[in-house]
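I'll show a record.
***
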Amino acid sequence: MDPEIFQQRLLKYLNELYKSPVKILYLGPINKEASASEGLKEFGYGKTLLIEFEVKDRFKSLVLSSMTKNIFGHDHFSDRAQSLLLAHSCFNKLPRHARSVDVGAFTRDGGIISLGEAEEFFIITEKVEGKLYYLDLERVKSTSVLTSLDVERAEALAEYLASIHQLKSGEESLYVRRIRDLIGHGECLMGLTDSYPAKLDFTDADELREIEKKCIDYRYKIKYKTGRLCQVHGDFHPWNILFREGVDFTVIDRSRGEWGEAADDVASITINYLFYALQTKGRVEGPFLTLFNTFWNKYLEKTRDLEMLKVIAPFYAWRGLVVASPIWYPKLENKIRRKIFNFIHAVLSRDQLVLSDVPSMFEGL
């Protein structure tokens, strides 16, 4: 940005922050041996500026800092926002710590806005018409009748994922991170295991620890397959898909960033076909097995991504822990939970998933 424009916008921000006219005396590098104008030209994300000014006949000196994008958990804008918001909320609580005056943001047009008074953030989205896809699955569960439209919708969802997964990214660190987050993120596998109550009839801490260890082992099998990094939804399940007439649908609540592993989306939707089969028949068979196979057949037809069968195991383990969860599904029979755990152990014990074996994997075979 032009240094003069930046200074004008900074002055406007300071006037609003202090609710009084401000006179800037110096704006540039903390090391004043460098020229102020050169410092402004070089200023950007990850840089630091010294601001000296007068306000209400008092001299003040502030340091303006931003964060640079890096591979240490700061890949996304939201990561950097999280770090700076946390810093602002914590600095002034610690004795002898430099005080935080405000936390702000640069706008798309180069403006500066204050967020210092913020306590919670929100998002507003357009209202989407349609019925959640899980209602289709509930109908099939209650009637055991599979319509041609049910098959067409499963194919449409597979084609949608195949389409969005075509867009690739070369930012290798994001793939490594996505696999790391799969294991350790609070919304993912370890967050799920930590959410399981201490005393349960169908599992215990030793088994959950065993699953975590197997997933860590799997992480080292797949985390360097960085060429697979692609556009993803990140939470592609029947409660985030709304259908209207025929196969016309909209998705909502994309999660955990733009880029990831395609197996994340595929596991997220297909585990639900298996889950509904267990609730309907007590086994993976019947209409929902048809939907499972329909989806996979169409997806593989469109993508030819057979390598996914070698990387999907920990994603199925995570989603298995979701549908077996006593928190998310408190009324689920324990015998169904145990069958899901059978599947988790079975899928993690293999180097490659064989789709025709999936029904027997729930039976501990």
